[in-house]
């Protein structure tokens, strides 16, 4: 089993994680001519310079010790390498940097220049400038002092240290072997430098026979360059490992002093190597190793259970993001603070984004001050599902940063139906309307999202009656932006959840918002279903099942569903415009308010059919056989038609099979049973076929 690294490598390889709140969102778009340190092209440039650093690390001590005069070709190549690092110095004046305190990506050219000039600029220049060429000194006549100046090029090795620090967190590479390679590299570089420096001492000593190499080989200067270099490495590695064969040893005071410092250095280097190897074998580097263990456990779990590649990527991305966020200790810091301070921090970070959410437009500031401290900020990696389709939603979400896709599953294939960006909300359908989530929500990039539980949300709304009505009015206005909901207004629509219903008495009106939602939404559902049916038939749509008419907030999509059947016709999909159109194109023609249904063939009008029955006693269920009629357009016509069928014209009241009075023709469905009450408590029943 293999994980698709390309989907999350760009996120995890970066060191930039958005801070809490909205303060840095405007900084993500850098100014013109400013280079992002996360840009892939700059990353490639860094990797190219890394190979030049490795060359510099080897050639600099070698030239210092063994080359009395440089070869012309080597001089030219060294100057070419210096030119590349000079270009990098120039690029650093246009390189954005991350402010460690505010975690903001700074793109101000003046601040970038001041920061670079006050930190590494001098060292970078000294390690790049070819002093021999600038001072017009012949390479063949340069002394030890100028050769020491060339050793400043070893400053470039800091890039290797940064590389290993990044590779240790790169999940493409085994952590143990990465650390092992780092220790080997440090050891080889120490051996190389020590051998070169010790040879310089012997080469510059007046009496060559009283040197560590001259005592064994008096004519060592006549040997080939590589023989002398190998002999120096041999002495260095034998001394480092404390083997001490005795064939090569210090012969004069200079060599003794150098050997003393080298062996002291070996004590520290050996301790460093042994300590790191012990840590790798026993403790596996603590926190980072725990992260690697979690990655390996996830891989084994996915392989054992044969999870799909998409789920595998989501699991691995979540572990990577958890590793990043835990290191920030944001939740731990917030939890140790008093509630008043936590509330102040939450207001400062999140109030600007919450008050601009369309659902909270016009609500009191007191309500926002109650809601914001109850919200929890969570980070989601790319390609992770925040909400699943048809999930019973228990949380309300607000996007602080990032972007998300809205998707539906159609015959086993996912279709993108919309986008959600910073400042938008989702989950209000499940929280306020009590409906299953009609679409899935999945992140497209690392996103910061505020989460508010349904229970907490409704409890706060219960104590703010006026804000209840404002929120539901905002929700209805969003729903009206879709075809099929154009005629829904505040006067005719009883789904203003926190207002009293016309058919519920004041003493029976529930105070719980969720109960009010259940009662008031029934009439809207009946209207919505009828409108979807009408428009679907008039457009000839092959909607095989008239669904449960769930609605999606403005700017997204309207979908209907009827569990357990959720069958969609593929020819109704229109994904040519970015996936933002309605799946069924339900409002393919404008809603006219006519309650008749127009068939797909020949424009034939289809009326609702009802069966009427007469009840003479209010306690009786059914007195005589019903009569099948076509449902008229108004209640007055329905009363008149029922009176004609049963010879009574004093019918004043109509109820359904549950004895609930009906005062609007729109709520009557095809197949309902209706009961008409006369002034003497007689009743007529109507059944819709």
TrEMBL record:
It is found in: Membrane. Coiled coil: none annotated. The keyword Metal-binding does not apply. The keyword Protein transport does not apply. GO terms for molecular function: voltage-gated potassium channel activity. Residues 609-689 form the KHA domain. Its main location: membrane. Residues 359-478 form the Cyclic nucleotide-binding domain. Keywords: Ion channel, Ion transport, Membrane, Potassium, Potassium channel, Potassium transport, Transmembrane, Transmembrane helix, Transport, Voltage-gated channel. It is a multi-pass membrane protein. Residues 564-584 have a biased composition (Basic and acidic residues). The chain crosses the membrane at residues 47-68, 80-98, 180-202, 260-284. The potassium channel is composed of a homo- or heterotetrameric complex of pore-forming subunits. The segment S4 is probably the voltage-sensor and is characterized by a series of positively charged amino acids. The pore-forming region H5 is enclosed by the transmembrane segments S5 and S6 in the Shaker-type (1P/6TM) and contains the GYGD signature motif which seems to be involved in potassium selectivity. Potassium channel. This is Potassium channel. It comes from Solanum pinnatisectum (tansyleaf nightshade).
């Amino acid at each position: 089993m293999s994980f698709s690294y390309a989907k999350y490598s760009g996120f995890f390889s970066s060191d930039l994680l958005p801070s809490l709140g909205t303060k840095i969102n405007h900084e993500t778009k850098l100014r013109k001519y400013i280079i992002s340190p996360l840009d892939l092209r700059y990353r490639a440039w860094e990797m190219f310079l890394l190979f030049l650093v490795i060359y510099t690390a080897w050639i600099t001590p070698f030239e210092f010790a063994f080359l009395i005069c440089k070869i012309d070709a080597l001089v030219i190549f060294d100057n070419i390498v210096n030119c590349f690092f000079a270009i990098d110095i120039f690029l650093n004046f246009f390189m954005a940097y991350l402010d460690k305190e505010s975690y903001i990506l700074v793109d101000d050219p003046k601040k970038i220049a001041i920061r670079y000039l006050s930190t590494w600029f001098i060292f970078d220049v000294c390690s790049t400038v070819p002093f021999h060429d600038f001072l017009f000194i012949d390479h063949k006549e340069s002394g030890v002092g100028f050769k020491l100046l060339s050793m400043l090029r070893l400053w470039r090795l800091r890039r290797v240290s940064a590389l290993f620090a990044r590779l240790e967190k790169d999940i493409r590479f085994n952590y143990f072997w990465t650390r092992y390679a780092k220790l080997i590299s440090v050891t080889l570089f120490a051996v190389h430098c020590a051998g070169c420096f010790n040879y310089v001492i012997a080469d510059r000593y007046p009496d060559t026979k009283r040197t560590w190499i001259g005592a064994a080989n008096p004519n060592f200067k006549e040997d080939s360059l590589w023989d002398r270099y190998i002999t120096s490495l041999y002495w260095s590695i034998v001394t480092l490992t404390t083997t001490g064969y005795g064939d090569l040893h210090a012969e004069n005071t200079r060599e003794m002093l150098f050997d003393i410092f080298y062996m002291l250095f070996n004590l520290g280097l050996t301790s460093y190597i042994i300590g790191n190897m012990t840590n790798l074998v026993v403790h596996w580097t603590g926190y980072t190793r725990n992260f690697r263990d979690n990655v390996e456990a996830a891989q084994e779990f996915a392989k054992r259970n044969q999870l799909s590649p998409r789920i595998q990527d989501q699991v691995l991305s979540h572990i990577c993001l958890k590793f990043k966020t835990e290191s920030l200790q944001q939740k731990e810091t917030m939890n140790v603070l008093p509630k008043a301070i936590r509330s102040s921090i939450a207001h400062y970070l999140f109030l600007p984004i919450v008050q601009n959410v369309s659902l909270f437009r016009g609500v009191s500031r007191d309500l926002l001050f109650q809601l914001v401290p109850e919200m929890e900020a969570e980070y989601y990696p790319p390609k992770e599902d925040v909400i699943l389709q048809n999930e019973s939603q228990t949380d309300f979400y607000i996007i602080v940063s990032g972007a998300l896709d809205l998707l539906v599953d159609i015959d086993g294939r996912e279709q993108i139906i919309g986008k959600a960006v910073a400042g938008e909300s989702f989950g209000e359908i499940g929280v306020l309307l009590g409906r299953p989530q009609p679409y899935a929500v999945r992140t497209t990039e690392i996103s910061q999202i505020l989460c508010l539980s349904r229970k907490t949300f409704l409890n706060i709304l219960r104590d703010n009656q006026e804000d209840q009505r404002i929120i539901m009015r905002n929700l209805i206005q969003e729903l009206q932006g879709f075809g099929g909901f154009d005629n829904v207004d505040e006067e005719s629509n009883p789904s203003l959840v926190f207002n009293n219903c016309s058919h519920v008495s004041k003493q029976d009106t529930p105070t719980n918002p969720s109960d009010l939602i259940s009662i008031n939404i029934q009439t809207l559902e009946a209207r919505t279903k009828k409108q979807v049916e009408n428009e679907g038939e008039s457009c000839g749509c092959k909607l095989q099942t008239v669904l449960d008419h769930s609605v999606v907030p403005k700017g997204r999509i309207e979908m209907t569903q009827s569990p357990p059947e959720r069958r969609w016709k593929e020819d109704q999909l229109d994904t040519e415009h970015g996936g933002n159109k309605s799946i069924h194109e339900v409002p393919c023609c404008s809603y006219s308010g006519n309650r008749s249904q127009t068939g797909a063939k020949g424009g034939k009008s289809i009326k609702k059919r009802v069966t009427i029955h007469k009840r003479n006693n209010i306690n009786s269920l059914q007195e005589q056989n019903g009569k099948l009629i076509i449902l008229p357009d108004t209640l007055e016509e329905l009363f008149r038609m029922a009176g004609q069928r049963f010879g009574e014209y004093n019918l004043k009241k109509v109820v359904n099979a549950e004895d609930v009075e009906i005062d609007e023709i729109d709520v009557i469905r095809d197949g309902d049973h209706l009961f008409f009450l006369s002034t003497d408590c007689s009743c007529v029943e109507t059944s819709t076929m």
